[in-house]
């Protein structure tokens, strides 16, 4: 009953805000504190109690109140970051502020007139915008700085055991900013530019943490059917971390003339290109191959292992890593694990060839194979016998990985949809690149030539 009452109080505060015609003063703390008190305890409550129609109405009819709500929520994040968010009360306020901003920001980005809102100056207590001093920094900078600080708070987002607080801050950082401000395809995404610049003092620990989260994840577990017995929320964190990595490594987010500068200023790209130790390469490659092979693993107990669904993000990340770190590419090519990259790529290419919604997956898979095929070691590795039992819609054959490559390419060319025709030249180029190194072909593959 008490929980229902607190939710009712939160709902009343939302109704008050959306129905007020006059401006609510920013110094009315008793009113604003209702939004980040312990009234709600999960993101689902916030989404249910703050309907989308009311957010849009607030944006159109009372923009000052919406702006103040965002300012006050960011202010809570900044205050908590300054105090390291040690108390339980502060932690609840931070989580509810994050949940509320998660709900509001997509609707703010809907309106082109609001897209520059977070890059406006922070108002002073009298409600005026200051042009000098510490308060002149944009609201976006304050928010990103606070979020990055909060990701490394002991006993809040950094703890010995699994911590869902970090997941919520991670998800918020991922989905609400970097993919939301799409004002122009040729204009710099200012969120990414600042997040990956030297102004973000947590750039290096963030990069290494995201990399460790992705490459250190093993969804298999020890107990069969563990995903049915336990709720593994870590997969969501891994997917969010992977998406953040991909977005921050996107060199094309800037305009063409500014591209060299962006590459230099993007610390995430800088750190990625400077990884050179073989033990680091081994950790990353094994992590990527483990996750790529996960949906294809066959066990004696059907459906006993958890299946991850972010293979497209993994392929994009692998592509970017090879593109920006040639030492990693050479390490992959000299390792036998390169075939553990090849097989899932061919599986997804074969499985997606008739699905027009997966044309992007087809492109990234073909481009990775085109990149790998330019090196001799890849062609030599294709002579290894193919003994896997992965279910694929291809003729049964006994041969090598080179045979598998030819058979899958033949299926794509003959049974793929029309939007794949621009890739046919790439497929033929790959075959030309590897043909000098393939020693033998099975009868099935030879008949496809």
TrEMBL record:
Pfam families in the cross-refs: Dymeclin
GO CC annotations, alphabetized: Golgi medial cisterna; Golgi trans cisterna; membrane
Coiled coil: none
Top-level taxon in the UniProt lineage: Eukaryota
The protein, known as: Protein HID1
């Amino acid at each position: 009953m008490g929980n229902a009452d607190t939710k009712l109080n939160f709902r009343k505060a939302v109704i008050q805000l959306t129905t007020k015609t006059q401006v609510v003063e920013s110094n009315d703390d008793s009113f604003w504190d209702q939004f980040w008190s312990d009234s709600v305890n999960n993101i689902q409550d916030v989404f249910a109690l703050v309907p989308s129609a009311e957010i849009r109405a607030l944006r159109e009819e009372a923009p000052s109140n919406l702006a103040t709500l965002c300012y006050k929520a960011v202010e809570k994040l900044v205050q908590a970051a300054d105090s390291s968010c040690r108390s339980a009360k502060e932690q609840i306020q931070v989580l509810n502020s994050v949940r509320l901003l998660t709900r509001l920001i997509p609707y703010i980005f809907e309106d082109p007139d609001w897209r520059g809102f977070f890059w406006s100056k922070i108002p002073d207590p009298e409600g005026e915008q200051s042009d000098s001093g510490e308060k002149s920094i944009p609201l976006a900078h304050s928010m990103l700085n606070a979020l990055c600080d909060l990701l490394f708070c002991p006993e809040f987002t950094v703890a010995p055991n699994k911590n869902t607080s970090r997941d919520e801050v991670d998800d918020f950082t991922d989905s609400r900013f970097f993919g939301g401000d799409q004002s122009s395809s040729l204009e710099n995404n200012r969120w990414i530019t600042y997040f990956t610049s030297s102004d973000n003092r947590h750039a290096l620990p963030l990069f290494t943490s995201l990399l460790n989260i992705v490459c250190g994840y093993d969804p298999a577990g020890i107990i069969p059917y563990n995903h049915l017995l336990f709720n593994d929320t870590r997969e969501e964190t891994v997917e969010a971390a992977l998406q953040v990595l991909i977005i921050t490594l996107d060199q094309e987010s800037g305009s063409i003339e500014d591209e060299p500068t962006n590459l230099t200023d993007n610390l995430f790209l800088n750190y990625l290109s400077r990884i050179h130790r073989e033990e680091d390469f081994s950790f990353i490659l094994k992590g990527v191959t483990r996750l790529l092979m996960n949906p294809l693993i066959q066990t004696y107990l059907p459906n006993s292992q958890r299946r991850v669904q972010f293979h497209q993000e993994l392929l994009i990340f692998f592509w970017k890593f090879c593109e920006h770190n040639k030492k990693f590419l050479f390490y992959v090519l000299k390792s036998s694990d390169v075939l553990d990259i090849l097989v899932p790529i061919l599986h997804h290419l074969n499985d997606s060839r008739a699905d027009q919604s997966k044309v992007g997956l087809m492109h990234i898979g073909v481009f990775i194979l085109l990149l790998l095929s330019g090196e001799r070691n890849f062609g030599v590795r294709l002579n290894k016998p193919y003994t896997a039992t992965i279910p694929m819609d291809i003729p049964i054959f006994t041969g090598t990985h080179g045979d598998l490559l030819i058979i899958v390419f033949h299926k794509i060319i003959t049974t793929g949809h029309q939007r794949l025709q621009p890739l046919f030249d790439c497929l033929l180029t790959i075959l030309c690149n590897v043909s000098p190194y393939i020693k033998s072909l099975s009868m099935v593959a030879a008949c496809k030539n």
